[in-house]
Design brief:
957 residues; alpha+beta; D-Maltodextrin-Binding Protein, domain 2
Length: 957
């Protein structure tokens, strides 16, 4: 045993195993252990007679050493029945939730059970406590020795979904600049969905357990919550705004005499520095601007390519250079600051077979890299010189990859992602990470010419004064998945030589097959292609100078068969399935449409498809959802029909209990056919992810269509969704039954009166069904407030209305204080009741015509509205805040459950060049201040000069 006693002292030194790379819980800076759990254990030392000696390693390593008796204790271990046979556990000092994380470019279906992950590459940490759940479900999950390795695997595309603790996944993605990674929701692990943090000792040492437990019991719960908040929000440091930089008299005099400083920025190194509209911008530029604020120096930006800037620094034409990495041989060139960002370098390739672990793996391929980059010499030493091509700009490097001039490119991850999107390089992937001895990644620093060495020291001092919150704001602004500039631009579509040749050989004409009866998404009317997919191809035709020619067909199966037989080049709206992948290639999805169940108006609403039992449920023959549903619900009685219209008619005639359709097409045909006796009776928990499908025997065409899909901007994708959601159809009455009645009727007038009354009633029911249909897509199920779809639709509309009418626009972010404590103490049922109560109070206080309320996610809500006087909106928010404190949120408990809220408000009159995102950003910052300043308060920030709005009251309590 490693347990030892200090000489002359009864307090034992306890060796405790912690995971080395488990930020923000446990990690090491040099030899110093840091993290939330380390801080808790330090408090245990203060309140008990033990001293911890930390031993770090991967989880499998420390667990093995602990079980062999080489460690006295282990931290962060969860209780399990099989472990309890040999281990004694303290009470939990923390719970962390287990979540799923995905790449935003790789949409996943909703995951409600482990079965929904079948067919995906799932990653978990080796020997983690919930790993057995995946084994029991028949998964062959990919295992990694640490959470950082797991997150990197997801970022590099080696797995489809990562399973791990929510806080750690978010922290690692943020710290590594992987802003394209996104949480997908809680992991469906039932009793293992929360991980309990405990300290464990071997069963043979109950005395040590009692000492550690006594230390934990002595720590106030509020102290642990304070530690957790500091690590969640501020990386372990106390949050503070950067204060005026404390400079010595000599430093101040030096800056006074210095004059303007010329700083060189690469103009093609997005998102760190690049030129847009003649102005240099990016993360590096924002950091330098903040250093300028702190030091008072005047910065003159100088743009150029990397070789030019290095030459200018050597010649004294510029004083400093951004985006430079430290190398010993560069010490004669510049004096370096500490890094302001570290990013991984990776190998990008279009070769699906290439795997990279070391430079020797690139022996048989041509490699492109940046001229003068710090690792160029290392790469040239390892590879034949003729295979290494150096380029002066990042764009040139990736254009060479697109043209096939090189097989692989070594570049910084964010910069590479940017140029792959910008150039629309189809099939590009990450083959592996470039790891050089002693260099964790590309360290971005400022380099100052040696004659200005004191300036380097001052800049380094200023860098340390930038608060963690400020750093995070700057990083979040630029390290998003689609950064190119603050205002998104349409990506230019550029064809490589193969693609240009294909287009020339086909006279730039592409044959298209569609579903003739799937409106409003697509259809054929009077021999013409119509619907949303027609709009998409029209856009692509203009963007790529192409002509899409319709090949008519009688059904969806005709369209699929024509592509299979080579009579057609593509279908514009198709969903990927395993069966179709045998003969089709798919672009990334560009449209998501909810799936619904349609039944008769007298059918009760259902929660899940399985509630229909063995009743017949219709779906169009050949539709992708039929294949997926048969796999997930083998007992479902699926009946194929030839078209949407036939399926709906069979439901109307009671031949089917329900019909599976999309929200778009169900709404369209229920209106256009006058099917007022049908309604939406349920939601199928998977959406249609629609792509363009091409024959897999023509990969070049697949690459062309992928580039066009990749060129769609966020605004264009939102407009496509808006097109089908906002479609209005003149209602048509189905007169078939009426004419049958007239043909056999004698008392025609009486029957007409009867029918008109019935028709009026059915039309009212149709209106109710349509209203329910609309609410279904934009309403949060728990609170009945608007959801994120509602927010995305209404927020820009409300902003634009205020902008046009020069009216005040107010945005309030509302967050329930310490809501996790309510869930942990009272349970999730009480937590849900509190959210419902909070929503009810919101509706009571914000019911004006221009008021809009949405649930932003979790316990966070957003209110946006117009106003005449800012004092009015502040008063309403204060009244709402007080009402929350005065009303217990779950009266089923004996004394009720108390709840408070923090509110961040931004307000102002939108100017022509204003953006709604600025109001949202300032409201979020104000919310952060409200929570940092004690919670249960309102903090407000004006978007423009407060004098414009007639008040200077920006803060209230």
């Amino acid at each position: 045993m490693a347990l030892a006693h200090a000489q002359g002292d009864d307090a034992p030194t306890v060796t405790i195993g912690v995971v080395a790379d488990n930020e923000p819980y446990t990690f090491f800076e040099g030899r110093t252990p840091r993290g939330f759990s380390v801080d808790v254990l330090r408090l245990v030392e203060q309140h008990s007679d033990v001293t911890f000696e930390f031993r770090a390693g991967s989880w499998p390593d420390i667990y093995s050493a602990f079980m062999k008796g080489e460690l006295d204790a282990i931290d962060g271990i969860s209780w399990r029945p099989d472990r309890a046979k040999n281990i004694l556990f303290t009470k939990p000092y923390h719970y962390r939730e287990i979540y799923l994380m995905r790449d935003t470019d790789n949409p996943l279906p909703p995951v409600n059970e482990l079965e929904d992950l079948k067919g995906l590459r799932v990653g978990v940490v080796e020997n983690i406590f919930y790993g057995g759940e995946f084994q029991d479900a028949g998964f062959n999950a990919n295992t990694y020795d640490s959470l950082p390795s797991l997150v990197r695997a997801l970022a590099f595309g080696w797995i489809d979904v990562a399973v791990g603790p929510r806080l750690t996944l978010e922290y690692l993605a943020d710290q590594n600049g992987f802003q394209f990674l996104q949480l997908h929701g809680p992991a469906p692990l039932s009793q293992y969905s929360r991980e309990d943090f405990r300290v464990g000792v071997l069963a043979t040492n109950p005395e040590l357990l009692n000492r550690i437990q006594a230390g934990l019991d002595a720590i106030p719960e509020s102290r642990i919550q304070n530690l957790l908040q500091r690590w969640q929000e501020f990386g372990g440091a106390q949050a503070s705004q950067a204060e005026q930089l404390p400079l010595t008299a000599d430093q101040k005099q030096y800056l006074t005499n210095l004059g303007p400083v010329r700083v060189g920025f690469m103009d093609d190194y997005a998102p760190f520095s690049f030129t847009d509209g003649g102005r240099v911008m990016g993360l590096s530029v924002d950091v330098m601007n903040r250093l300028s604020d702190l030091t008072g120096i005047q910065v003159i930006p100088v743009r150029g390519q990397w070789p030019e800037l290095i030459s200018m620094l050597q010649g004294g034409e510029i004083d400093a250079i951004a985006n430079i990495s430290y190398q010993p041989e560069r010490e004669s060139l510049a004096r370096f600051t500490s890094p302001y960002h570290v990013i991984p370098n990776v190998v990008f390739t279009t070769n699906p077979e290439l795997k990279f672990r070391e430079l020797a793996d690139l022996q048989a391929v041509n490699v492109g890299l940046g001229s003068g980059i710090y690792y160029e010499g290392t790469v040239r030493m390892a590879l034949p010189d003729s295979q290494v091509q150096a380029y002066a700009s990042q764009e040139a490097i990736f254009q060479a990859l697109a043209n096939g001039d090189v097989d692989a490119v070594i570049s910084a991850l964010p910069a590479g992602n940017y140029w792959i999107r910008e150039l629309g390089i189809s099939g590009a992937r990450i083959a592996g990470e470039l790891k050089l001895p002693g260099i964790p990644g590309e360290d971005l620093r400022f380099g100052v010419r040696p004659s200005l060495a004191p300036l380097a020291s001052i800049l380094d001092q200023a860098m340390g004064a930038i608060s963690p919150k400020e750093r995070r704001v700057i990083e979040n602004r630029w390290l998003g998945a689609s950064n190119g500039s603050p205002a998104e631009r349409t990506a230019q579509v550029r064809w490589n030589r193969q693609e240009q040749q294909w287009l020339q050989e086909h006279n730039r004409q592409i044959r298209v097959c569609v579903d003739p009866n799937w409106l409003p998404l697509e259809g054929i009317r009077n021999g013409e292609h119509v619907g949303l997919s027609s709009d998409v191809l029209t856009l692509f035709s203009e963007r790529g100078d192409l002509r899409f020619n319709l090949v008519p067909g009688k059904s969806w199966m005709d369209a699929i068969d024509n592509v299979r037989k080579g009579h057609c080049d593509l279908v514009p709206l198709a969903m990927k399935t395993p069966a179709r992948e045998s003969f089709l290639d798919f672009t990334s999805p560009y449209l998501e449409v909810p799936t619904v169940l349609v039944g008769r108006i007298d059918t009760p609403f259902i929660d899940r498809v399985s509630d229909l039992g063995d009743q017949p449920v219709g779906i169009v023959e050949g539709y992708a959802f039929g294949e997926l549903l048969r796999k997930r619900n083998p007992t479902l009685n699926l009946v194929t029909v030839s078209s949407e219209q036939e399926g709906l008619r069979q439901v109307q005639n009671r031949e089917l209990a329900a019909y599976i359709s999309t929200l778009a097409t169900a709404s369209y045909y229920m209106q256009s056919l006058g099917l007022a006796d049908l309604k939406v009776i349920g939601r199928v928990p998977s959406d249609w992810s629609l792509s363009i499908a091409t024959g897999n025997d023509d990969p070049v065409l697949g690459d062309i269509m992928q580039k066009l899909v990749a060129s769609l901007t966020t605004q264009e994708r939102q407009q496509l969704e808006s097109n089908w959601r906002n479609l209005r159809i003149t209602e048509q009455v189905d007169y078939t039954l009426l004419w049958q009645i007239l043909a056999g009727a004698v008392v025609i007038t009486l029957l007409l009166v009867y029918w008109n009354r019935k028709l009026g009633r059915l039309n009212r029911q149709l209106g109710e069904a349509n209203a329910a249909l609309s609410r279904l897509s934009v309403t949060d199920n728990l609170t009945d407030l608007g959801n994120r779809t509602y927010f995305d639709r209404e927020f820009p509309k409300s902003f634009q209305w205020c902008q046009r009418h020069e009216a005040g626009f107010a945005v309030a972010m509302v967050d329930a204080d310490l809501f996790k404590n309510i869930n942990d103490t009272w349970g999730h049922e009480t937590g849900d009741q509190c959210l419902k109560t909070l929503a009810e109070i919101m509706r009571e206080h914000f019911r004006r015509e221009t008021d809009r309320i949405a649930r932003f996610g979790g316990e966070e809500f957003i209110i946006f509205t117009s106003y005449e006087k800012v004092s009015d909106i502040m008063g309403r928010l204060e009244s709402f805040r007080r009402a929350v404190t005065e009303r217990p949120c779950d009266t089923r408990q004996e004394q009720g459950v108390d709840l408070t809220v923090s509110i961040g408000l931004s307000w102002g009159i939108p100017m022509p060049d204003s953006s709604p995102s600025e109001f949202l950003r300032l409201a979020d910052q104000a919310l952060y201040r409200a929570k940092h300043n004690g919670r249960n308060r309102l903090e407000a920030t004006p978007v423009a000069d407060p004098a414009i709005h007639g008040t200077d009251n920006h803060r209230s309590r």
